[in-house]
Design a protein that fits this description.
alpha/beta; eight-stranded mixed sheet; six-stranded parallel sheet; binds uridine-5'-diphosphate-glucuronic acid
Length: about 425
């Protein structure tokens, strides 16, 4: 099949590459000419495991363009994978989506627009009206949300838990199902609004689990329980399951913070106060800041103290720093007058962190530090020579924001180790 993908970001590139890998002929279109030029030269603008290989391997089935007509020519399905960042009011900014809808050329055959961008419930209906107003009745519309996570996006795309297809017309749903031929997963067929809500509800539920376990962690700290053991014991209940029960310094990324706000505002706009979600968001904000309290309890005032941030990306496996807890931590530490150094194996802190010294290695970041905060659970940090790390530090205070390291091993190495929701010695 011929597939067009609008948007060459994390979602669009993975979608395009995976569809090409299935055997479709794919044209990825983006408005940023430099990005398209780079992709044509074989340069991948993001760090996503397996994506470079997939793009390289499927070169003959993948084209990149800035031209709308070229991308839509001959296509049966036009995927929309453009950004929907939050506006000042917290609602999703759909301007990039509207641009795609308004730019869509008139074609004399049936094509299906499939929405991958995360949009508020009701967007599909409004888009349908707009298409009809433009006289594009031969353009079908389907909501086909993505459930891929950064760092594992290629694997998630190829082996999804489910494929959700919300359509106004069953014939359009059938076209989108055919695009997924060869991907073995249950297919949920539903109306467009329900497909849009499945995406928002799934993310909100995952965030709820994280904030829930983070609150349990905070109570564990106050009562002497160990949240890692608690999560293990809770997660073995088959009704609950073990996933998304890792306590830490809060969730970040391009999806959860924005989607939770968008769903909260969506509810508010329709007159409903989504109390649980509001609490989930607030717990997450506080969780990022609790680290500062942990450091102050050990070091007193942070003015003039050197603190090293280990990891900057919002999770391992990606260079994405959007809404990463590292941004809040760096900002708070600088505001307290601390001297902040940081290291990440792929995320470029220089672009986002003014006033922070970006080191070339974790050990360099730790040189002379009074404290270290493990922000992202990169495997490199699990393998770090922590004895050497301790020797480089001025004081061996380590806050493990992801409960990645073994507390007793770290204490045996002379570290004053504190995790999240674990007993403090
Ligand atoms: C998330 C969802 O997992 C995907 O299903 C969804 O498609 C995607 O958003 C999206 O809407 O596009 P992503 O944000 O890439 O994917 O990454 P996650 O693995 O979900 O992690 C999000 C954040 O939660 C990270 O900061 C991570 O450190 C944190 N997290 C995750 C925890 O703090 N604890 C956990 O147990 C799990």
């Amino acid at each position: 099949m011929r597939v067009a993908v609008f948007g060459a970001g994390y979602v669009g590139l993975v979608t395009g590459a995976c569809f090409a890998d299935i055997g479709h002929d794919v044209v990825v279109r983006d408005v940023v000419a430099e990005k398209i030029d780079a992709l044509r030269r074989g340069k991948v603008p993001i760090h996503e495991e397996g994506l470079d290989d997939l793009l390289e391997h499927n070169r003959e089935r993948l084209r990149f363009t800035t031209d709308v007509d070229e991308s839509v020519e001959g296509a049966e399905v036009v995927y929309v994978a453009v950004g929907t960042p939050p506006t000042y009011s917290g609602d999703a900014d759909l301007s990039a989506v509207w641009t795609v809808v308004d730019e869509l050329p008139r074609v004399d055959r049936r094509i299906v627009v499939a929405m991958k961008s995360t949009v508020p419930v009701g967007t599909g209906r409004t888009i349908r009206h707009r298409l009809d107003e433009r006289g594009l009745e031969n353009v079908g519309y389907v909501s086909n949300p993505e459930f891929t996570a950064e760092g594992t996006a290629v694997r998630d795309f190829k082996h999804p838990d489910r494929i959700v297809i919300g359509a106004f017309d069953p014939a359009d749903a059938e076209v989108v199902e055919r695009v997924h031929a060869g991907i073995d997963a249950p297919v949920i067929h539903c109306d467009v609004a329900s497909a849009e809500m499945i995406k928002l509800a799934a993310n909100a539920f995952l965030m709820t689990r994280i904030s829930f376990i983070n609150e349990i962690a905070n109570v564990c700290e106050a009562t002497g329980a160990d949240v890692v053991k608690v999560a293990e014991g809770v997660g073995l209940d088959h009704r609950l399951g073990p996933h998304f029960l890792r306590a830490g310094i809060g969730y970040g990324g391009s999806c959860f913070p924005k989607d939770s706000l968008a769903l909260k505002q969506l509810a508010s706009n329709s007159g409903y106060h989504f109390q649980l979600l509001a609490a989930v968001i607030e717990v997450n904000e506080l969780q990022k800041r609790r680290v500062i309290g942990k450091l102050e309890r050990r070091l007193g005032s942070l003015r003039g103290k050197k603190v090293a941030l280990l990891g900057l990306a919002f999770k391992p496996g990606t260079d994405d720093m959007r809404e990463s807890p590292s941004l809040v931590l760096a900002g708070r530490l600088l505001a307290e007058g601390a001297d902040v150094s940081a290291w990440d194996p792929v995320a470029d802190g220089r672009v986002h962190l003014d006033g922070v010294h970006i080191a070339d290695s974790a050990l360099d970041a730790l040189d002379g530090a009074d404290a270290a905060v493990l922000v992202t659970e990169w495997p490199e940090l699990g393998e770090l020579d922590w004895a050497e790390a301790g020797a480089r530090m001025r004081k061996r205070l380590l806050v493990d924001g992801r409960n990645m390291l073994d507390p007793s091993e770290m204490r045996a190495l002379g570290f004053d180790y504190e995790g999240i929701g674990r007993a403090v010695e």
